[in-house]
Design goal:
The structure holds three protein chains of three kinds. Chain A is an all-alpha fold. Chain A is built from seven helices and no strands. Chain A is 72% helix and 0% strand. By secondary structure, chain B is of the alpha/beta class. In chain B, strands 4-5-6-1-7-8 form a six-stranded mixed sheet, sandwiched between helices. Chain B has a two-stranded antiparallel sheet with strand order 2-3. The chains are: A mainly alpha, B alpha/beta, C mainly alpha. Chains in contact: A-C, B-C.
Amino acid sequence: MTTYGRGLRGLSLGAAATITVALALVFFYAPLDANQGFIQKIFYIHVPMAITALCGFVFGGVLGAMYLRTGESKWDIRSYVAIHMALIFGVGTLLTGTIWAKASWGHWWVWSDPTLTSFLIVMLLFATYQPLRFSIEDRERQSRYASVFAVVAGAFVPLNFIAVRAAQQYVHPRVLTLTGGNLPGSMRLTFLVSLVGVALLYVTLWKYEMAAKSTRMQVRALRRTLLGEDAVAPMKRSAAPS
Amino acid sequence: MLRDVSVQVPAGSTLAVLGRNGVGKSTLLRILATLLRPHAGDVLVFGEALPRRAFAVRGQLGLLSHDPLLYRDLSGRENLVYHARLHGVGAERVETLLDAVGMRPRAEEPVRQLSRGMVQRLAVCRAVLHSPRLLLLDEPLANLDPAATELVAPLIGRGAGATRVLTSHDPQAALAEADLVLGLEGGRVAFLATPDKVDPVAVKRLYA
Amino acid sequence: MSTALTVLRKDLLLELRGLETLPAMVLFAIVTFVIFHFGLNRDTIDGQLAAGVLTVTLLFAAMLGINRLFVAEREQGGFDAFLLAPVDRSALLVAKATALFLFLVVLEVIAVPAFGLLLLGPSLGPPLLGLIAVLALGNIALAVIGTLVSAIAVQTRARDLIGPIIGLPLLLPALIGMARGAGPLLATHGASWPPGRWVAILALYDVVFALLSYAVFDFLLED
C-alpha cells in the first residue's frame, strides 16, 4: 500500500509558504487596477482556482483511465479524490466569480463571459459524479462506471470550452486571458505565484485525503483480521472499498 | 454469498447442485456462465480461466436460467433466429429445434401469448441452439408437463452428451440424473459426493 | 458489424411491434410546439429564437427515446442474452446508437414540417438542405451520448434521473452547435447553409465522443 503520508509535511509547508508569499504579493506588490479598484484582486484567487479545478477534472479522467486499464482499485480512489477536490475548488471558483462579476459589472451572473459559462456547464456535469457513484451498489461496478464517467467527462472539458467560446459574443473586454497574455509584469508575477500556491494546495489536500482514506482502509482490514469478518460493518456512502 | 466452494466436474458428466432457495445455486451457475465475476478464487471452464478468458468459452456454454431470456413481443421463431444470428448458427437449426420440442405450430405467436410451459420449451431451444459443450441448467424442468419433459430430454438430458451442471428443487430427481452431487448450505459446501454415497439425512437437512 | 446489424434489426422489429416510443416522441414534440406558442405568446418565430425552440424540443423528445433505449434489455433479460453470445460487445453501442439515430430521423421528418406549419415564420424550403445537415450532425451527437448515458443509467438505482442529468450537460456543446448552426437558416431571408464554425464544432464533437464511447463501452457491460 503506497504511503501517501510520505513527503506530506514538506508539501504542506511548501504550499503554505507559497500561498503566504502570494498573499503578500497580492496585497502589497500588485498594482491597483485602474478600472475596478481593489476588488480586481480577487482575480488572483479566482483564476488559479479555476485552472486548478479544470486540471483536477482532467487529472481525474486520466486516473479513471488508469483504473480501467489496470483494474486496481487504488486508481479509482485516486480518481474519486481528484474529482471531489476539483469540485470543491470549482465551487470556490464560481463563488469568487460571482462576487467579482457583481463588483465589477454590477450583476451577480453574466452570460457574456465564456469562461464562467463553460465553467458552470462543467460543474453541472461533475455534480452528477457523486450521485452516480453512490447509486450503484456493487463496489466493482461502481468503480468501473465512475471511471468511465471520469474519462468521458474529462474529455468533455476542453471541448466544452471551445464550443462556448465560439458561441459567446462578449461585450466586455477580456480580462481573463488564461495564458496571462496581456498582463503587465508585476501582475503576471503575482498571478503566477498565486497559481503555483493554489496548485500546491490542491496537491496537498489530495494527498491528505488519500492518506486518510488509505489509513482508514488499513485499519478496517486489520480489525477484520483480528475481530472477524462480521465485526466490521460495511461503510455506507463511501468510494473507498470497505 | 458463496464461500469456499471447490469442485471439479469431469467432461461429459453431470453435477447436481442441491440446496435451499437463495443459497447460491443460481449464483454459481451465473459465474460459470461468465455473467458474474467471482470476488476470489479460480474458475476454470474447459481449462480456460475466467473471467480473463471468458470470451474463449462463451460460445460453448448454454445457460437455461429462471428468466427465459426471450423478448415477449417477438415470436418464438424471431427470438430463436436472433439468438442464432448472435451465435453464428444457421436458421435451419432453429427449425429443427422447434420441431424437436413440438413448438412449430405456435412459432409465429408473440412469446407474451404463450403458456409458461411453452416458453420454457423455447428457452431450452435457445440454450442448445449452438450445441454447447457445457449446459448450465437452473431448474430445467420447471413448468414442464411430463410430455414436454420427454420432448426436451434428448436436448438437455443425459443423452445430450454435454457436460451438465444442474440445479433442481426435487432432490430425488436430481440424484437420479447426476454423476456427482454438491450440497450447498449457508453458502458453503455441505457435502460433495457421488449419488450412491450421498447421505439422505444430509439432503434432508439442506432443505430443513 | 453483423452483430450490430442483428441487434439493430431486432430493435427495429421490437419498436414496430410495440410502437410505443416513436409515437410518444412525435406527440411530445408537437405538444411542446403548442406550449411554446402559448409560453412565448407568439404566432410565428424566426431566426435564432426559432432555432432554439426547435433544438430544445428535439432534445426533450430525444430524452424520451433515450430513457427507453435499454428497457427491453433490462426487463426481459436481453442483457444476459447478449452477454452470453460470443460477440464483440461494442456492437451493442453501435446498434443502439444507430437505432436511436433512426428514431430521431423519423421524429424530425414529422416534427420539422410540423414546426414549419405551427410556429416558423419563414419558409422551410430554401434552407432545407442546410437544416438537414445540422440536424444530422446533431442527431449523431444525441445518439452516441444518449446510448452511453442510457447504458450507464440502466445499472443504477435512480435510472430515470441519472440519464438526463448526466446527458444534458454532456450534450451542451452539441446543442449549442445545433441551435447556433440553425439560427441563420431559419431567419427571414436567411442563409441556405449553416456557418462553417458550427459545422466544425458539431463534427469535432461527434468524432471525439463516438470514438471515446466506443472505447469505454465494453467496460460498462462487464460484470
